[in-house]
Amino acid sequence: MNCSEVRTRLPAYVDGELTVSEIAAVEGHCLECRQCAALVGAERELRQLLRRQPRETAPLELRARIRRGIRREAAVGRARRWLPVAAVAAAAAIVAFVLVPSRRTPPPLVADLVDKHIAYAQIERPAELASTDPREVVEWFQARAGMRVTVPDYSPAGIHLAGARLAEAHERKAAYLLYEKGRTLLSVFMVPGSVADATFPGRRVSYRGHEYITDERKGFRTVSWTDGQAIYGLVSVLDYDALLECADRLREERARQTRL
Amino acid sequence: MALVHLDALYDVALRLTRNRAEAEDVVQEACLRAFRSFDRFNPGTNCRAWLFTILRNVFLNRIRSRGHEVPEAETGGLEQAETTITAHAEPNPEERFLQTMVHGDIERALGTLPLSYREAVILVDIEGLTYREVADVLDCPIGTVMSRLSRGRALLRRGLVRFAREHGYVKEEDE
Fold first, then answer.
1. A66/B14 touch (CB, cutoff 8 Å), yes or no
2. What pLDDT digit, counting tens, does each position of B51-99 carry?
3. Do A49 and B126 touch (CB under 8 A)?
4. B33 by DSSP, 3-state: which?
5. What is the pTM assigned to this prediction?
6. Which residues in chain A have Cβ-Cβ distances shorter than 8 Å to B48?
7. What is the ipTM, given to two decimal places?
8. What is the DSSP letter of B174?
């Protein structure tokens, strides 16, 4: 890619809308072109500025007015269309799903993981076990919870293991690994279970022949996937390329261990 | 009972209309329409994007019903040229001052964008929708979303730099 090709793709690059091969081409170019690299920084900065915009909340009075309106509509519809009550109730239930959070539809697992990532980043000791030794962490999970956890080594990418903890996600015991790249945290979650009981919103991305779901929440990027036995989720502000690379390595390592 | 997406709808309505009373009316009408047409919502898709589509239609209809032109056409000629704007824009020291911008400035700069650029920036940058979702909301090709976004951001950046100059954060000769 030349400068002009890279620059027309910059917004899509910053928005995470490029394919993995395009991302690689843009980043490869930026390693050698300082002007383009600076433009990436400027583009990101503006985007972050907008993302940090304070949001308006709807006035309570408006909320109440809309609720009254919906109730009235439902009543009118019932009378006018002479619909059986059950049909109206079914319609109301669907709208409830659309507009009203129901206790029965939990937020997606990945939302839970992002919240955990944020919460852990704020506490003084995010890791129960502070350790930079993968073997120690593997043994700790085994002894503590009987979990067979894979602890990948990301140090060639400058991402270092900092510790681990037992976490809970969707009311299930989960393994949590904490990595650091400088002052940037990377959270790796492993939640035993299958996709059947978790929803995965986001974009499907194929990376080195495997499918991943990427999603952005509360300013953090997530990459998740499943191997049928567990659901894996990575959360960080690191870019998708780095996260997908980490995901791929964990997947490979996990597959290798299962074969043993 | 709580309307989960109401705050997002209200926030976007406010940015589109730039008027509280108008935003409230638009949101209320959009919610009632969503209720009436819930059977057209495809459950596998982004609910917020679907609601934004309805919200935007309500907003545009209100503009039209007052006999105003929907300011879509005003930007038609610019779109083509735009993809190259970022290509020639070099980062300059002023970019650093973007960080010092106060909330009101961003609000003001966003408000000066032509509607078609403003809505693309709001939906992608503030609401975090994907290009595909925004293309559905705006009923246009993804390429158009990208060019509007690119153009919108470039204009926004220019507006912010102008405000920074007004505040004296950057000097005229830095330009």
1. no
2. 999 999 999 999 888 876 665 534 433 444 333 334 344 445 555 555 5
3. no
4. helix
5. 0.55
6. none
7. 0.77
8. G
